[in-house]
Inverse folding.
C-alpha cells in the first residue's frame, strides 16, 4: 500500500497546467473520435445516396435528426460533405455522371422530407428570391439556402438552377424581394455571376444580395466587394445569424 | 517543380484589360464552336481523348472558355493554377491523353489569333504560353 504521505505528495505535484494539458489531450482525443465517427458516417451516407437507396437514407436522416432536431447541421455536416465526396469520386473517374445525378437527386428527395423541421407557423413580412444563376446547373446549395429562409418564416421563392437573367429580373420586378440570394457551384461561372450582379444592380439599386456556393472555395470572395448591399456566405449557420440580424 | 513555385510563375501573366475581356466575352461562343469543329475533324481524336469522350471534350472546351472569361475579368494566379491542375487530374482520370493538352492549347492559340484583335490577343497570350510550357509540370503535379 502506498503511504499516504507519498500519495498526497504525488497528487500535489499535479499543477493546474498539468490538469489543463490532460484535459486538452482528452478533449482532442474525443474530437478525433467524434470526427472519425462523423467521417465514417458520411462515407456510409455517401454510399447510400450513390445507390439511390432512399429508404436507407431516410433511416439515417431520421436517426440524425432525432439527436440534433435541427436540419441545418444535417445539411452542412452530412448532405454537403457527402455530396462533396461524390464530386471527388467523379473527379477520379470512380463514378459516372449518372451516378452523381442519382446521388444528388436522392439528397434532394431527402431534403424535401425535412419540411416539418423547416416550415414554421410564424410568418414574417419579408421576401427572399433564391436561385442558381444562368448557366449554373447545380441547385442543391441554393435549395438549402431557400430552406433556411423558409424556416425563418420568410416568403421564399426558390427558382431552381440555370435561371435566365432576364427571367430573374422579371421575377424580381413582380415580387419585389427584400433579399436576392445567388448561388454559383463551379468557378467557371464567376464571370456570369459578375454579369448577373451588374444587370440586377442596374435595375435594383438597393436590393440586398447574398452570394455563395462551392465555386467560392477556389477563390473570388473579394471579387464583388465593389458592390454595396452585397454579402458572401460560406455556410448556412452564418446565413441564419445574418437573417436574425436583418430582422432586428 | 513544386506546386508553390508553379503558382508563383503565374503571378504576372495578365493585368485587367477591358478591351481584351469584352472581345473574348463577345466571341467566346463562336470560338468554342471553332475548336469543337477543329477536333471533330481530327483523325487522331480517339488517341487524344480516349473512346467515348467526345461530349466530355466539348464540355471541357465550353468550361475552358467560361473559365478564361472569369480569369480575364478578375485575374487570380492561384485560382488559375489550381483550376488547371484540377482539370488535368479530372480529365486524365476519364481517359484523356496528355497529348490532348498540347493539341488543345495550340488550337486555342490559333483561334484566338484569328478571332481577336492583335492587341487583345497579345494581352491573353502569356496565359496560354504559360499553360503550354508547363504541361509536363501539370501532368506531374496532378498525379
Amino acid at each position: 500500500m502506498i503511504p499516504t504521505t507519498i500519495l498526497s505528495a504525488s497528487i500535489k505535484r499535479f499543477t493546474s497546467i498539468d490538469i489543463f494539458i490532460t484535459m486538452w489531450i482528452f478533449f482532442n482525443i474525443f474530437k478525433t473520435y467524434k470526427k472519425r465517427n462523423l467521417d465514417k458516417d458520411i462515407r456510409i451516407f455517401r454510399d447510400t445516396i450513390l445507390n439511390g437507396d432512399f429508404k436507407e437514407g431516410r433511416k439515417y436522416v431520421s436517426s440524425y435528426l432525432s439527436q440534433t432536431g435541427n436540419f441545418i447541421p444535417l445539411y452542412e455536416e452530412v448532405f454537403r460533405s457527402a455530396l462533396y465526396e461524390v464530386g471527388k469520386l467523379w473527379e477520379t473517374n470512380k463514378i459516372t455522371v449518372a451516378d452523381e445525378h442519382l446521388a444528388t437527386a436522392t439528397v434532394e428527395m431527402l431534403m424535401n422530407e425535412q419540411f416539418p423541421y423547416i416550415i414554421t407557423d410564424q410568418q414574417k413580412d419579408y421576401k427572399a428570391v433564391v436561385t442558381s444563376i444562368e448557366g449554373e446547373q447545380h441547385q442543391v446549395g441554393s435549395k438549402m439556402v431557400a430552406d433556411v429562409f423558409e424556416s425563418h418564416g420568410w416568403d421564399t421563392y426558390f427558382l431552381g438552377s440555370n435561371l435566365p437573367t432576364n427571367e430573374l429580373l422579371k421575377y424580381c420586378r413582380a415580387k419585389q424581394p427584400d433579399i436576392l440570394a445567388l448561388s454559383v457551384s463551379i468557378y467557371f461561372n464567376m464571370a456570369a455571376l459578375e454579369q448577373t450582379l451588374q444587370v440586377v444592380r442596374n435595375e435594383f439599386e438597393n436590393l440586398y444580395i447574398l452570394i455563395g456556393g462551392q465555386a467560392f472555395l477556389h477563390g473570388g470572395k473579394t471579387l464583388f466587394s465593389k458592390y454595396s448591399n452585397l454579402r458572401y456566405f460560406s455556410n448556412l449557420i452564418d446565413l441564419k445569424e445574418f437573417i436574425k440580424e436583418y430582422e432586428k | 517543380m513544386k506546386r508553390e513555385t508553379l503558382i508563383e510563375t503565374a503571378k504576372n501573366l495578365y493585368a485587367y484589360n477591358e478591351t481584351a475581356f469584352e472581345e473574348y466575352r463577345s466571341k467566346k461562343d463562336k470560338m468554342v464552336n471553332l475548336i469543337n469543329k477543329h477536333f471533330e475533324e481530327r483523325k487522331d481524336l480517339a488517341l487524344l481523348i480516349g473512346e467515348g469522350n467526345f461530349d466530355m471534350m466539348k464540355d471541357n472546351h465550353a468550361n475552358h472558355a467560361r473559365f478564361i472569361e472569369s480569369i480575364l475579368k478578375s485575374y487570380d494566379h492561384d485560382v488559375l493554377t489550381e483550376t488547371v491542375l484540377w482539370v488535368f487530374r479530372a480529365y486524365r482520370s476519364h481517359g484523356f491523353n496528355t497529348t490532348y493538352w498540347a493539341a488543345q492549347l495550340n488550337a486555342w492559340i490559333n483561334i484566338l489569333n484569328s478571332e481577336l484583335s492583335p492587341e487583345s490577343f497579345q494581352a491573353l497570350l502569356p496565359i496560354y504560353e504559360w499553360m503550354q510550357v508547363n504541361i509536363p509540370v501539370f501532368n506531374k503535379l496532378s498525379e
